[in-house]
Amino acid sequence: MVTFVAASALGVGAYVYQWQKHRSGDIFKNPFSSPDTLTNEKWTPILLKKITPVSEHTSLFDFELAHPCSIPISSAIYVKDDEIQAMRAYTPVHSTEAEQSSFQLLIKRYSEGQVSRFMHAARPGQKIEMRGPVVIWPGSQADLEQWDEIGMIAGGTGITAVLPIIHSALTHPTKKIKISLLFAAHCPEELYFKDELDQLAKTYGGRFVVSYAIDKLPAASTGSEVVPWKGHVGFVNADMLKGLLPQPQTETPSEGNPTKSIVLVCGPEVMVKHVAGTRGLSGHEPVRGVLGAMGYQRDQVFRFPN
Ligand SMILES: Cc1cc2nc3c(=O)[nH]c(=O)nc-3n(C[C@H](O)[C@H](O)[C@H](O)COP(=O)(O)OP(=O)(O)OC[C@H]3O[C@@H](n4cnc5c(N)ncnc54)[C@H](O)[C@@H]3O)c2cc1C
């Protein structure tokens, strides 16, 4: 909870101002927006339409908006459990820059988790209190234009933050941004959207490279359909990342070193800390962990709040 409050106040909040500015045009045009319009100014009941289990502990929740709105790429929506007044952030899975009349959240249930248990007990037809969206990392196509290469390390449900960025970058109308992703999870079932990622890698050839890591191999099964695991096994380490991510940049891109790249890290706190060191209250702590040891500097790494 302390982590969450800190992330909300400083990490996530760092972008609220920008997002409010971005939206101020809408507010100006429509100062009395309808009470059932999703905004970051107030809690709004949003209709839960469908729940689709995707693994033992994780489901996709489909919501319908009474009024279409734009949900910026890589933004968060806050969900509130009204009974205990607890709120948590979740990242809409397939947000685009266009206006949307629906969105999906992928939520993992934690046995002691307050809001994730509340969501997994919810039923279609119920309305859930939400506010947002709040941009976490600027991922629109206009924002992405500045990058030549984007490396990503996602853990478990952290894939929700980077998936829309991958789509946005790969479909950029003019710029051919290179994307690399290491997706790590406890087990193969928690490598959410793997088929979609594999398909993108096929469609976009060398522009999108994805590799996978699981904590340990699943116990042997006698089933005839078991496919042998071909990815990495173990916690994220330098060997998994070398040759996959953009090179560490020791100085600002210049004429002699023109490639402009960034590495995004998104996942549970323990994984982000292991990969890049503590995010800190400002999000600007020095890079430590695996990436720090590989020579990545603060300006080249963005740690998502978790
Ligand atoms: C910007 C942002 C976007 C997020 N997007 C998503 C998303 O798309 N999908 C999603 O499922 N979650 C996402 N999260 C995490 C989410 O906000 C909650 O932290 C998570 O659902 C747990 O909340 P809870 O109330 O159920 O658990 P809490 O009551 O906060 O915690 C209870 C227990 O669960 C454990 N726990 C909590 N979170 C984790 C974790 N990530 N890994 C391991 N143990 C944990 C705690 O250690 C504790 O023991 C996001 C967080 C942020 C800040």
From TrEMBL:
<dbReference type="InterPro" id="IPR001834">
    <property type="entry name" value="CBR-like"/>
</dbReference>
<feature type="binding site">
    <location>
        <position position="106"/>
    </location>
    <ligand>
        <name>FAD</name>
    </ligand>
</feature>
<feature type="binding site">
    <location>
        <position position="88"/>
    </location>
    <ligand>
        <name>FAD</name>
    </ligand>
</feature>
<feature type="binding site">
    <location>
        <position position="160"/>
    </location>
    <ligand>
        <name>FAD</name>
    </ligand>
</feature>
<keyword id="KW-0274">FAD</keyword>
<dbReference type="Pfam" id="PF00175">
    <property type="entry name" value="NAD_binding_1"/>
</dbReference>
<protein>
    <recommendedName>
        <fullName>cytochrome-b5 reductase</fullName>
        <ecNumber>1.6.2.2</ecNumber>
    </recommendedName>
</protein>
<feature type="binding site">
    <location>
        <position position="116"/>
    </location>
    <ligand>
        <name>FAD</name>
    </ligand>
</feature>
<feature type="domain" description="FAD-binding FR-type">
    <location>
        <begin position="41"/>
        <end position="140"/>
    </location>
</feature>
<dbReference type="GO" id="GO:0005741">
    <property type="term" value="C:mitochondrial outer membrane"/>
</dbReference>
<dbReference type="InterPro" id="IPR001433">
    <property type="entry name" value="OxRdtase_FAD/NAD-bd"/>
</dbReference>
<keyword id="KW-0285">Flavoprotein</keyword>
<dbReference type="Pfam" id="PF00970">
    <property type="entry name" value="FAD_binding_6"/>
</dbReference>
<keyword id="KW-0560">Oxidoreductase</keyword>
<feature type="binding site">
    <location>
        <position position="115"/>
    </location>
    <ligand>
        <name>FAD</name>
    </ligand>
</feature>
<dbReference type="InterPro" id="IPR008333">
    <property type="entry name" value="Cbr1-like_FAD-bd_dom"/>
</dbReference>
<comment type="similarity">
    <text>Belongs to the flavoprotein pyridine nucleotide cytochrome reductase family.</text>
</comment>
<feature type="binding site">
    <location>
        <position position="108"/>
    </location>
    <ligand>
        <name>FAD</name>
    </ligand>
</feature>
<dbReference type="InterPro" id="IPR017927">
    <property type="entry name" value="FAD-bd_FR_type"/>
</dbReference>
<dbReference type="GO" id="GO:0090524">
    <property type="term" value="F:cytochrome-b5 reductase activity, acting on NADH"/>
</dbReference>
<dbReference type="InterPro" id="IPR017938">
    <property type="entry name" value="Riboflavin_synthase-like_b-brl"/>
</dbReference>
<dbReference type="InterPro" id="IPR039261">
    <property type="entry name" value="FNR_nucleotide-bd"/>
</dbReference>
<feature type="binding site">
    <location>
        <position position="90"/>
    </location>
    <ligand>
        <name>FAD</name>
    </ligand>
</feature>
